[in-house]
Amino acid sequence: MSRLVATSSVSGKAVPLDAENVDTDQIIPAQYLTLLTKRGLGRYLFYRWRHHEDGSPMPGFVLDDPRFKGAKILVCGKNFGIGSSRENAVWALIDFGIVCIIAPSFGDIFYNNAAKNYLVCVKLPAAQVASLQRDAADGSLQLRVDLAKKEVTSRRGFSAKFEMEPSVLKTLSERRNDLDITHNLEGHISKYEKTRRSFANDRAAVTIFEADRRRQ
After folding, report:
1. Helix, strand or coil for residue 63?
2. Banded model confidence at residue 206, pLDDT cuts 50, 70, 90
3. Closest Cα to residue 81, out of 106, 105, 117, 45?
4. Dist. CA 114–CA 109, nearest whole Å
5. pTM for this entry
6. Predicted pLDDT at 2
7. What would the pLDDT profile of 136-166 be if each residue is shown by its tens digit?
């Protein structure tokens, strides 16, 4: 079973990323997909936006701005995470310290990968996202995302409800991955298997198999 504890909310400083249609290759370039560990992937997050071709730092990117040091909630434009299915994009965001992304829409595969890795993805209307980006521009906006209430709030009075698929909400709230769920069903699986016919010593099944093999 997963050692991660259940949670009902996430909170932290918000950082605005004024970009739409951010694909997974922009989140983490393909050359870093060969790394064999999740730890340390954060250094390659948005690598091409943060570094020159020679690897030297490129000044001006919002995540490297001292005002947003330690930010945990990324507020960005529509269609975040489109493109390839690389789960590494989610791992890089998490390793960097991001616990939640707020956007009008997400790439479907990215959205599912995020849920399985407990990265909260909240969909809000574009106007509300734009309002949050403006409020976050000075580096002082703190947000709270309440999964139980399905609500995003700030101390400045912002409040917005969001919808989330029940299965995704359950995964994020209980922090249980597919393997955890399968383990919990072990008793049911064993009971079902006992009701199934065994073909291991079934002479009729063996005869059919041997006849099919001879015909090939």
Report:
1. helix
2. low
3. 106
4. 8
5. 0.82
6. 42
7. 999 999 999 999 999 999 999 999 999 999 9
Residue 62 CB coordination number (10 Å): 21
Ranges of beta strands (E only) in the chain are: 9-17, 73-76, 100-103, 120-123, 142-146, 151-154, 159-161
What string of H, E and C letters represents the secondary structure of 147-188? CCCCEEEECCCCEEECCCCHHHHHHHHHCCCHHHHHHHCHHH
What's the whole-number mean pLDDT along residues 23-47? Answer: 93
In this predicted structure, the answer to whether residue 90 has a pLDDT above a threshold of 80 is yes
- CA-to-CA dists, residue 11 to 17, 42, 121, angstroms: 17, 20, 13
Residue 126 falls inside a structural domain: yes
The alpha-carbon radius of gyration of the chain (Å, integer) is 23
Total domains in the fold of the chain: 2
Instruction: Specify whether 198 is located in the same domain as 108.
Output: no
The closest of 124, 133, 116 to 174, measured between CA atoms, is 116
User: Helix, strand, or coil here: 87?
Assistant: coil
Whole-angstrom distance, CA of residue 16 vs CA of residue 136: 6
123 and 94 in one domain? yes
pLDDT at 214: 73
Token duo for residue 137: 């521009």
| Angle in degrees, CA 2, 151, 6, rounded to 5 | 15
Residue-number span of the structural domain to which 191 is assigned: 184-215
pLDDT above 50 (res 132): yes
